[in-house]
Amino acid sequence: MDAARIAGYFKRKSILITGSTGFLGKILVEKILRVQPDASKIYLLVRGADASSAQQRVQEEVINTELFGLLMGKHGNGFQPFIQEKVVAVAGDIIYENLGLETPVLKALAEEMDVIVNIAATTNFYERYDVSLDVNVMGVKHLCQFAKQCPRLKMFMQVSTAYVCGDVRSREVLILEKPIESGESLHEGRYLDIDAELRLVKEAKKELQNSPVDEAACKTERKAMKELGLQRARHFGWPNTYVFTKAMGEMMLGQLRGAMPVVIVRPSIITSVRADPLPGWMQGVRTIDTLIIGYAKQNLSCFLGDLSVVVDVIPGDMVVNAMMAAVAAHSEEKGQAVVPVYHATSSLRNPATYKVLYESGRRHFYKNPRVGENGEVVPTKEMRFFPTIARLRLYLMLTFKLPLEILHLVNLLLCGHFSRLYNDLNRKYKFVMHLLDVYGPFAFFNGCFDDINMERLRQAMAMKTPEDHMFNFDPKAINWDDYFTRIHIPGVLKYLHK
């Protein structure tokens, strides 16, 4: 397994990619086009009213991004003709049967397809339960149904998340690369029935929709659906709706795959591009990036966490390299007894702690101090970390909430004289509480992701030429301190910090 074999695999292949407007999807599209210009077609399924609007979305949200600068430079004036020849935008949506496509279009697409890569997902931790089920579960079902109509299909790749393992704060555990079984629950004695969950949501929405439709009713429905998702996730042992429904998506794939060649890739927290095509490039705020941005804005003076805890992160380009290698390695493996699962993670081979991330951030801001609106240098302050939720809540109550309530009362007595100050401080307080609620469980995540399958794939790689290193996905190659300081944190500030 070397660069020539991986790149060569995609020659004259037709590939359907969902989620191409997202971070990982863009990296995959760019990489295939750059390393294998003789790929037949790359079909990008995107939401759009028609083919024209889908094409516009792909052009604006994928092709015109900075990520494609290297490819653009390589082709020069021939870049757009090359893209028009190779990239086909398809107006559809995985939440619908037949992907929302007309029968003739669906059949023509099925006849062409060699590889399907499903990256599309709603990644909001507290998304509406109905929306999460539609995208993360039913989307897998509809793609499987389509895949079975593809006579040339050689691979169906499902991109999941390593955190389908659930909440392991209370114990140190090695999380294996094994498929999720049908009906499996993380709470013993509970059977997870996907059909029952779909019926539950349907009935809940039916009850909510009995009231008159207005803005208040819509708000009530949104809140109820979010709370239902969180409730059902925790009932079965998952910490949030996102990882719960991604686990169900894997379960759905296991039920429907039949003899189809399938691979599941589970990345941990995906971070900015490390090497190529554009170091530091990223899109979409990830868990740790929220902390970096909060620190940069000086909205965050304290947070929950143990600096000795490992934060499992992996650069986006390494994830894509692993995905492409896995596709080439398992192509046409029909009738697999067990679905191959790959952890694209770092905690076992090259763990990075929160301390490394924090020290890198602090060093970066000392060397590159922020400047306020008045042109004065904003001093870099130390952050304080609390080892338990109870201690942090008490600290926040005494340090922020109590003075805020006093300020609120004074503001009322003085007819709003301190409104601006109160609103600013209240916003910062709510920001910290939001982070605590959403990301708190990950601050004490003690799991270590086994990657024996991924290591076997790495050992099969021949790293003999510079081209071979274009497909490097070995976390041991990363110097975390250098990566965070020189690449990731500047990338977050450039692409995400507004």
Automatic annotation (TrEMBL):
Its EC number is 1.2.1.84. It comes from Urochloa decumbens. It catalyses: a long-chain fatty acyl-CoA + 2 NADPH + 2 H(+) = a long-chain primary fatty alcohol + 2 NADP(+) + CoA. It comes from the Eukaryota. Gene3D superfamilies: NAD(P)-binding Rossmann-like Domain. Catalyzes the reduction of fatty acyl-CoA to fatty alcohols. CDD domains: FAR-N_SDR_e, FAR_C. SUPFAM superfamilies: NAD(P)-binding Rossmann-fold domains. Belongs to the fatty acyl-CoA reductase family. GO terms for molecular function: alcohol-forming long-chain fatty acyl-CoA reductase activity. This is Fatty acyl-CoA reductase. The keyword Glycoprotein does not apply. One of its GO terms (biological process) is lipid metabolic process. InterPro entries: FAR, FAR_C, FAR_NAD-bd, NAD(P)-bd_dom_sf. Residues 17-323 form the Thioester reductase (TE) domain. Residues 401-498 form the Fatty acyl-CoA reductase C-terminal domain.
